[in-house]
Amino acid sequence: MLNSDDDTLSVVSSDGYHEVSRVHIGRGPHHLIASLDGRTLIVAMSGSNELVLIDRTTGVESQRVEASDPYQIGFSPDGKWFVAASIRLDRIDIYDAKTFQLVHRLPAATMPSHIAFARDGSIVFVTLQGTGSLIAIDLATGKDLWTVPVGPSPAGIITLPSGTLLVGIMGSDHIDAVDPRDGSIIRKIQTGNGAHNFLVSPDGKTLYVTNRVAGTISVLDADNLQVTGTLTAPGGPDDMALSPDGRELWVTGRWHAAIDVIELASGALKATIPVGRSPHGIFVY
Q1: Do 202 and 246 meet the contact criterion of CB atoms below 8 Å apart?
Q2: CATH of the domain at 187
Q3: CB distance 113 to 128 below 8 Å
Q4: How far does the chain reach from its first CA to its final CA, in angstroms?
């Protein structure tokens, strides 16, 4: 997992619930994803303007690729495009997914943050935290299709199987269900103050939403978007990952320099693991 404020990567034991190692990785690590073939972890380094590639089998760094202020990153579902939101430089970069060559660069005012894609891979949707808006971009042409207001400080965004977008409204206490065709808001679902990011269970039946200010995680039925429960996660819950057996939810606590491990069957806080300052992106092997 990544500690954004002290420029480190922590390796944490999933059975012993302790930090195994912490290494300096570069300036401003925020998010990380797996490569298209699943063999490599790609770490977005916004401060040092690069992508760090780490072999998932050995844990050894294999390559560094120049990229301007990559904050949040993602591959389109069709595997053609790699997109980086540059929250510091107010722009969105679209790369060829295979070569990491820059194809399109768009200004995006302001603070482009999180990324989601249309199901067919033709469009990328990016939240703009500074202006409370959501932008839709045609990936092939790099053209802005629409930009619409959705609420104060929108953050996390995902695409449901139906194509509907869900956006966490971090400056309020709810998530928006958004029509991908024009950005119109279909409905609002109240979760908690600082609604921030999403995680869907592997079976697609459950949706988790971190509420950073409230210090909670809302549990929703992924089909009808009804809140079915609330988990406690103090310290500014941000990104999430499920344990391989699906029994535990691992959550980064941005404000208390720790990872919270929640037992889903009981909802109990099973462990709190100290790591570096401002833990952010997390990936469970």
Answers
A1: yes
A2: 2.130.10.10
A3: yes
A4: 11
The Cα 43–Cα 34 span in angstroms is 9
Closest-CA residue to 146 (of 193, 115, 179, 168): 179
Residue among 103, 163, 159, 112 nearest 133 (CA): 112
Q: Which two tokens stand for residue 91?
A: 């722009």
Question: Where is 249: in which H helix or E strand?
Answer: strand 248-253
What DSSP character marks residue 277?
A: S
pLDDT tens figures, 199-240 = 999 999 999 999 999 999 999 999 999 999 999 999 999 999
Residue 192, in any domain of the structure: yes
Residue 161 lies in a domain: yes
Question: DSSP letter string over 250-283?
Answer: EEEETTTTEEEEEETTTTEEEEEEE-SSSB----
Structural domain tally of the chain?
Answer: 1
Domain coverage including residue 153: 34-237
DSSP β-ladder status, 185-190 and 112-117:
unpaired
CA pair distance 283, 47, nearest whole angstrom = 20
Query: DSSP readout, 93-156?
Result: EEEETTT--EEEEEE-SS-EEEEEE-TTSSEEEEEETTTTEEEEEETTTTEEEEEEE-SSSEEE
Taking every pair of C-alpha atoms in the chain, what is the biggest distance, in angstroms? 49
Helix (H) or strand (E) holding 165, with range, is strand 165-169
Give me the mean pLDDT over the 152-164 stretch: 97
